Amino acid sequence: MQSQLTVRISEELEKEIALLSKKMRLKRSDIVRIALEKLVEDFHVKEDAAPYNKVKGLIGSISSGISDLGEDHRRYLLKKFRKDA
After folding, report:
1. Domain annotation covers residue 66
2. Does the N-terminal or the C-terminal CB of the chain have fewer CB atoms within 10 Å?
3. Is residue 84 part of a domain?
4. Which domain holds residue 51?
5. Interaxial angle between packed helices 11-24 and 28-48, expressed in degrees from 0 to 180 and rounded to the nearest 10
6. Domain tally for the chain?
7. Quick one: pLDDT at residue 24?
8. In 10 A of CB 80, how many CB atoms?
C-alpha cells in the first residue's frame, strides 16, 4: 500500500519542479518521488562507503605476536626507529 506525504515547498522550488515535469513529461509527484528515492539511495551508498565500514572485516584479523603491543606501543616504536636509524 502506498502512503501519502504532504510537503510545503517554496514557490521557486515549485516552479523548478513544474519545469522538470514538463520537460520530462512526468507528473510533479513523480519528479518528487524520483528525487526522494535518489536521496535515500545516495545516503545508503555514503553510509556503506564510510571508512570504518570498508575495513571492519579486517579489524582484529591480524596478530602481531606481541601480547602487550596496545599497552606498550611507544616502547616498540622507539625500538623499531632506533633499529632502522
Report:
1. no
2. N
3. no
4. 8-56
5. 100
6. 1
7. 96
8. 10
Residue 48 counted as domain residue: yes
All three cell numbers of 51 = 571508512
- Cβ-count burial 18-55 (b if 16+ within 10 Å, e if not): eebbeeeeeeeeebbeeeeeeeeeeeeeeeeeeeeeee
Q: Classify residue 21: in a domain, yes or no.
A: yes
Give tens-digit pLDDT for 11-27.
999 999 999 999 999 99
Those residues with Cβ within 8 angstroms of residue 66's Cβ, 6 or more apart along the chain or in another chain: 76
Whole-number pLDDT of residue 56: 81
CA distances (Å), origin 85, targets 72, 73, 81: 21, 18, 6
- pLDDT band per the 50, 70, 90 thresholds, residue 66: confident
Global pTM? 0.53
